[in-house]
Amino acid sequence: MFLQDLIRSALTDLRSLSSRVIALSLFSANEALEDISTRDLVYLLVPYVFAQLEGRVKAVERDERMGHLGVAQRCLRTFVDTLDHYEIVPTADRKLHQTKSSDVRDPAKRRELKIKQYQKEKELRTRTEVYL
Q1: Which long-range contacts (CB under 8 A, 24 or more apart) does 77-82 make?
Q2: pLDDT-derived band of residue 95, with 50, 70 and 90 as boundaries?
């Protein structure tokens, strides 16, 4: 139960941090990545970290669990939208993950695409875990 209390406390802190980021207008829709202060870049990760913790909250009831997962999903969408806005994800990586393997007719090419997507996803997860 200690871990769950710790997660809930961290979520409270992240909610507070998120509201401060919004109140200070650290990020704006009319600015580019180069306009953001280097020391403020870490705050781009707040929705991602929030989503990761929200997904780890234990819930007994199905509806409660679905609520937590819904919040996590919205936070991840916010994070991905921010990455898209600031063009942080390279175009080649974006195209790789937008390509659906079901659209590729050739089985060998479909397999190759799936392998590339998996390798890139694994690389991104590893790099993300290093920073967190």
Answers
A1: 78/47, 79/44, 79/45, 79/47, 79/48, 79/51, 82/27, 82/44, 82/47
A2: confident
